[in-house]
Amino acid sequence: MPVIDLNADLGEGFGAWRMGDDAALLHIVSSANVACGFHAGDPDIMAQCFARAKQAGVSVGAHVSFPDLAGFGRRSIPMSPQEIERAVAYQLGAAQALAHYAGHKITFVKAHGALANLAESDAQIADAVARAIVAVDPSLTQLVIALSEQTCAAERAGLSAAHEIFADRAYTQEGLLAPRSQKEAVIQDVELVVERVLKMLTTGAVLAQGGALLLTPIDSICVHGDTPHAVEMATRLRAAIESAGWDIRAFAPPAD
Amino acid sequence: MPVIDLNADLGEGFGAWRMGDDAALLHIVSSANVACGFHAGDPDIMAQCFARAKQAGVSVGAHVSFPDLAGFGRRSIPMSPQEIERAVAYQLGAAQALAHYAGHKITFVKAHGALANLAESDAQIADAVARAIVAVDPSLTQLVIALSEQTCAAERAGLSAAHEIFADRAYTQEGLLAPRSQKEAVIQDVELVVERVLKMLTTGAVLAQGGALLLTPIDSICVHGDTPHAVEMATRLRAAIESAGWDIRAFAPPAD
Amino acid sequence: MPVIDLNADLGEGFGAWRMGDDAALLHIVSSANVACGFHAGDPDIMAQCFARAKQAGVSVGAHVSFPDLAGFGRRSIPMSPQEIERAVAYQLGAAQALAHYAGHKITFVKAHGALANLAESDAQIADAVARAIVAVDPSLTQLVIALSEQTCAAERAGLSAAHEIFADRAYTQEGLLAPRSQKEAVIQDVELVVERVLKMLTTGAVLAQGGALLLTPIDSICVHGDTPHAVEMATRLRAAIESAGWDIRAFAPPAD
Amino acid sequence: MPVIDLNADLGEGFGAWRMGDDAALLHIVSSANVACGFHAGDPDIMAQCFARAKQAGVSVGAHVSFPDLAGFGRRSIPMSPQEIERAVAYQLGAAQALAHYAGHKITFVKAHGALANLAESDAQIADAVARAIVAVDPSLTQLVIALSEQTCAAERAGLSAAHEIFADRAYTQEGLLAPRSQKEAVIQDVELVVERVLKMLTTGAVLAQGGALLLTPIDSICVHGDTPHAVEMATRLRAAIESAGWDIRAFAPPAD
Fold it and tell me: Is the pTM of the predicted complex or chain greater than 0.95?
């Protein structure tokens, strides 16, 4: 029985502020990307999130970002690769400690927002992220965007990589995420999303604009929970994937 | 030959802002309390500070604080013991990761500013700090204020404790730090500071207002570097202690 | 025809973060308390909020707070009365400029959260808030909690005051807001809220626990929009007040 | 007797953090650019700064910036022109209120750091700054970099402009500030600085690399106080300018 992971962002709040529906997502995904305090997340939310994920049997990763609470990590803050490297190490360490505090364990790292976008095509920034992970703990897996510079950087750094595709996003002919400024960049239709994901899983390839199939390992599918519609789509997608014979399982489960 | 540690706060800057004279202190102390981003410190400054301390043979600890950059951690931010516990775990993890990144290793934890003051006499807050340390890594040492609730809390938590006295501070009859609102709370006279410290080291006791000697283990002496006068005082104190036959040595050196 | 004002908090977001339902509230209230960047609010949200309020014919006031984004202004940040005074002046000036920028005009000031709670009973803090308003613009009205120290402070400062009651809050025998730790502090039952408000409007008095009626001017009723239930309650309350013969009108409309 | 203004940045601290030597500069300059809380400055420091400037007879302006405390406003934070416009209005309003509170009056606005650099050559950003000033108070003067887009934008907006040159900076052949990455961008030699400034004042022109003199109105000279050397240079420059027959006087004194 083939296996696939579903991942989503969790713990996206800080202090009195909240986004997303953590409770719903914990029943859908096998891996949770937990915000580490730079774009969202605070020690309390992180600790609660790790404890709930542990109880739900969901693996947890550090979702590292530019320091940008106001912009939710979606803005490119001017930082050198070395500054990025250290910012990633800082967030990862904080997440490791709070996961341990909550009885869980960080097993992977994923870049968020503008940092992920830059690292998709900028090798220097992709290397900075990968180097930070290796420096803190080389046994961690990096959850990388399939076909991107992140993938190459993880390999250069000697890191284990899990390749993710996005359930509701269109891909350019080069296999990059279509920019959100494009009208068709985000796919709203649930059945179309299901159809595309199953095709990508079956073929082991990203479905690019124009119809080309770009071969890649696929270890995880990224889903969202920031709207009721998103939760519904993730639920439907999980059911469809399971019906089609896949087992939903974390790519990096904590060792017992 | 008896041994004693000298500790000081390092890495007290963030972004473009700076306090203190790290370069001078690294030649004086055997242990450095490194700010973790909540009252001061950012990933770059922390990484540089850990690298320099490693090179200087100085042990490093996480200097944990209330989240209060503007107030430099000197204000009591309203937080529950549980929120404090998680904030300490977060900072400690971040410091561990960046120390590791820089080739060094966190071997102790010290509370800063208002958090230290509250934990001096409030058992609940002292316990929160100690519990956080245990949860993240029970092999760490806590650098505690001698004769305070911090000492009791470390013991309750099963933590190894190093007891510190303050070179330039007066103590109440109960052995607490005299509040800064008192005229005599901070001792400016270098020779008086030297004389008092040597008396405390020799007797193994805190010298309280009124002259009483309150017996306590003494593992470390806290000095400052935030003014040229403070650096001069620390330099003079180190020389006097060494002349009197003590060996300046970290209480928690990293294992090789 | 008697007149009464309805006020609610608006613009409670910052950057990518949002609370409350501004669009719904703008159809219900006659005055909006707009967050100024310290507990919520940023220049964009403030400008949009002022422009929408202008279009809806809703008066706007500066909703001033402790600097505490994470805690949403609900925590007492340790600050001297002078520091509070200057923080209020800063926020008020920023709000005046952005209201002017958006074609509207700040006509009143209201304290938010922990600052409002402290100023309810602490004369020094109440005076600090009132002094700041007078220093910036003595022609502004202060929206004060009826029967509180805020009322006395506004009078001492020579400020015009508008007295507000809370639609869904119980009052102690002394006429203070019952602390939220009390089970009965917040009234959830819509019809009970309507009944109480109409009784207070009719008698010109606050209805205290135990049944006493404490006479006070009543110029405004505070309603909420942070949940669908709250919006529904505010809508129902407005309809009931209008049916009972009151005209809903801002206590401090901008001069044309 | 010809007149010229000397301007410098003041109030560059926040909370417990400090840069620069305000006390020294207040005896040297005729105009102070006061940080408004976005790159530096807090309500207390601003109020104190305005009160001291009033006492010293120094005019005050709002020194507006990107929101970037950590980067001291020297980083280009990704913001649209409209977001910049509103951020400038916010800061200006806050400064106006606190100046008024302290018995002084904002008479001009100057862009700081990365915002100033962008507005030197980007017309859209220059227009955003100028529009914000006009929207808040069209009677204010904008202190603009001579020969830059800031100058054109102030004119387009109908704002009164004061043109500044930089005492210690080299200019490209186009009359722009030489980028700091150039070795010769910042001139350290005091006598050379004095000679250049006097030449620029005498000829009414910016002295460009290669020796060309680019004609421009010159209303103010920007000096610094962030190092002892900078204070010494500013002192020497003022003496030389006065000896050469210029009267040091604010370009925008508050009306009595």
Answer: yes
User: 3-class DSSP state for residue B67?
Assistant: coil
Half-sphere exposure of D151 (CA within 13 A, CB side): 14
> How deeply is B160 buried, as exposed, middle or buried, from its count of CB atoms within 10 A (0-12, 13-18, 19+)?
middle
Q: What rounded mean pLDDT belongs to chain D? A: 97
Residues in chain D: 256
Burial track C143-167 (b if 16+ CB lie within 10 A, e otherwise): bbbbbbbbbbbbeebebbbbbbbbb
What does the alpha-carbon distance between residue C40 and residue D213 come to, in Å, rounded to a whole number? Answer: 50
Q: Which residues of chain A have pLDDT under 70?
A: 256
Instruction: Answer for the pair A113, A77: CB distance below 8 angstroms, yes or no.
Output: no
Q: Chains with 3 or more CB pairs closer than 8 angstroms to C? A: A, B, D
CB contact under 8 A, B136 and A101: yes
Confidence category of residue B255, pLDDT binned at 50, 70, 90: confident
Which pair of tokens denotes residue D222? 């920007």
Q: Which long-range contacts (CB under 8 A, 24 or more apart) does A198-207 make?
A: A198/A240, A198/A241, A198/A244, A200/A165, A201/A2, A201/A4, A201/A241, A201/A244, A201/A246, A206/A146, A206/A147, A206/A165, A206/A171, A206/A175, A207/A171
Angle ∠(A77,A80,A82) on CA atoms, nearest 5? 125
Residue ranges of chain D with pLDDT lower than 70? 256
φ, ψ for residue C70 (rounded to 5)? -60, -45
Task: Please report, in tens digits, the pLDDT of each residue of chain C (256 residues total).
Answer: 899 999 999 999 999 999 999 999 999 999 999 999 999 999 999 999 999 999 999 999 999 999 999 999 999 999 999 999 999 999 999 999 999 999 999 999 999 999 999 999 999 999 999 999 999 999 999 999 999 999 999 999 999 999 999 999 999 999 999 988 899 999 999 999 999 999 999 999 999 999 999 999 999 999 998 888 999 999 999 999 999 999 999 999 998 6
Q: How near does any CA of chain B get to the CA of A128, in Å?
A: 13
E strands, D65-187, in order: 106-111, 141-145, 160-166
The distance of D89 to chain C (nearest Cα, Å) reads 6
Q: How far is residue C133's CA from residue C115's CA, in Å, rounded to a whole number?
A: 14
E strand residue ranges, chain C: 3-10, 13-14, 17-18, 31-35, 59-64, 106-111, 141-145, 160-166, 205-207, 213-215, 220-222, 247-248
Backbone φ/ψ region at C19: left (φ over 0), alpha (ψ -120 to 50), beta: beta
Name the interface residues of C facing D (CB cutoff 8 Å).
Answer: 37, 43-44, 46-47, 82-83, 85-87, 89-98, 100-101, 132, 135-136
Angle between helix A81-101 and helix B43-56 axes, rounded to 10 deg: 90
Residues of C in contact with A19 (CB under 8 A): 16-17
Output the six-digit token pair for B220.
């470390």
D160 min Cα distance to partner chain B (Å): 33
Nearest 10 degrees: Cα torsion D63, D65, D71, D77: -170
Per 3-state DSSP, what percentage of chain D is helix, strand, and coil (rounded to 5)?
40, 20, 40
pLDDT (0 to 100) of residue C226: 87
Chains B and D form CB pairs within 8 A to the count of 28
CA distance B47 to B57: 15
Question: Across the interface, do C17 and A17 touch by the CB < 8 Å criterion?
Answer: yes
Q: Please name the residue that has the structure tokens 């820089």.
A: B102
Calculate what percentage of chain B has a pLDDT beyond 70: 100
The single residue listed with the structure tokens 């052995």 is B175
Among chain D residues, CA nearest to B69? D15
Q: Which of C241, C245, C238 is nearest to C8 (CA)?
A: C238
AA letter at A237: L
- Length of chain C as a residue count: 256
